[in-house]
Amino acid sequence: MGTALHRHEAQTDLALRAASYGMAAWAVDGMDVEAVERATGRAVESIRGGGGPHFLEMRTYRFRAHSMYDPDRYRDKGEIERWKTRDPIERLTDRMREDAELVDDELAEIEHRVTEEIDAAVAEAERAPEEPVESLLQHVTSARTEVT
Question: How far apart are CA 37 and CA 16, in angstroms?
């Protein structure tokens, strides 16, 4: 959970690694919402056009620990604060305000709708029956086939 990629992988460029399997692959600044939109649009267009599988490495930074049980002692707090200056949502809303594409009332309404949607999804998940243990591995691996 807390092992940095460079400490356990010889090749840390995941897009380059994926490309070695013969698929289209590229890295994207995952901290830039509009760059992600452009990259995914490009990939979807290619896939729908018969371009086969694509691998997009969304290079992002996790602001919080992995879980409530993770003390997050392996990262410098200053590093986290530096990355927070690149918060993708704040950067997008700031840019949209500057370009007069978004006003604070609209943002408040969007945030309200998102909160309602999340609350409804959580309530639905809590009402749902638990998954039977015998189906937990369904669709996790493929069935073995004989090679002739």
Answer: 21
